[in-house]
């Protein structure tokens, strides 16, 4: 396992620039959360008491229907699309992408490497995680939903293929602009951040 991690970090070092910090969760609309140490990240992702029930295929279908029906057209007034995410152990990470694309920018590879290193910690090896993508409320609502899913899938692919995390431990879903991190400012870049959420233990 150590050799695979070293390979992942070597790729990140060759590709990336200094890392942007991942951030601890704060309720939407609050000030930006403070960055944390690796130990704090581990603490925030551990300690899941009750695993939520997630049917990702059903959730994606519900999101698509919500967007198609144009329910709650005002972004700041939309209720959370997946409220069960609230209260779960999680981190918020500012992973950067090319504009309107699902291509991770080189400077974010070291951040993803640090996330991978956190997930390799012995106290987290028994857990599985959900990568949750978000997009600011700019452009078409249906496009934003699709883009956020593509980006969440790409983050998962990087963690699995570059940093050699088990694919069984990582799931992904894109929420588009349906669950804004800052509802008071729907177009703010803060709404492009990603959640990494602990959702259960490996069977």
Could you walk me through the main structural features you see in this protein, from its secondary elements to its overall organization?
The protein is of the alpha+beta class and 203 residues long. The chain has a single domain, classed as OmpA-like domain (60s Ribosomal Protein L30, Chain: A, 2-Layer Sandwich), CATH 3.30.1330.60. It is 33% helix and 13% strand. It is built from five helices and five strands; from the N terminus they run αβααβαβαββ. It has a five-stranded mixed beta sheet with strand order 1-2-5-3-4.
Write a concise synopsis of the structure shown.
It is built from 5 helices and 5 strands, in the order H-E-H-H-E-H-E-H-E-E. With 203 residues, it is α+β, with helices and mostly antiparallel strands. It has a single domain (2-23, 33-201), classed as OmpA-like domain (60s Ribosomal Protein L30, Chain: A, 2-Layer Sandwich).
Key phrases:
single chain; 203 residues; alpha+beta; 60s Ribosomal Protein L30, Chain: A; five-stranded mixed beta sheet; 13% strand; globular
SSE order and pairing:
Elements: H1 2-15, E1 22-24, H2 38-45, H3 56-69, E2 90-93, H4 109-119, E3 127-133, H5 141-161, E4 170-174, E5 194-201
Parallel strand pairs: 3-4
Antiparallel strand pairs: 1-2, 2-5, 3-5
Helix pairs in contact: 1-4
């Amino acid at each position: 396992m150590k050799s695979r991690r070293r390979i992942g970090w070597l790729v990140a070092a060759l590709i990336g620039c200094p890392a942007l910090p991942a951030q601890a969760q704060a309720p939407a609309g609050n000030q930006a959360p403070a960055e944390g140490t690796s130990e704090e990240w581990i603490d925030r992702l551990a300690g899941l008491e009750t695993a939520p029930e997630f049917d990702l295929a059903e959730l994606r279908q519900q999101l698509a229907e919500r967007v198609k029906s144009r329910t709650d057209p005002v972004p700041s007034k939309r209720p959370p699309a997946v409220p069960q995410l609230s209260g779960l152990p999680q981190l918020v990470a500012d992973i950067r992408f090319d504009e309107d694309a699902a291509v991770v920018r080189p400077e974010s590879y070291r951040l993803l490497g640090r996330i991978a290193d956190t997930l390799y910690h012995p106290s987290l090896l028994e857990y599985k995680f959900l990568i949750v993508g978000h997009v600011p409320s700019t452009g078409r609502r249906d496009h934003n939903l699709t883009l956020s899913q593509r980006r969440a899938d790409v983050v998962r692919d990087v963690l699995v293929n570059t940093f050699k995390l088990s694919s069984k431990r990582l799931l992904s879903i894109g929420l588009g602009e349906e669950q804004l991190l800052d509802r008071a400012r729907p177009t703010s870049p803060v709404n492009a951040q990603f959640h990494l959420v602990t959702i259960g233990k490996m069977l």
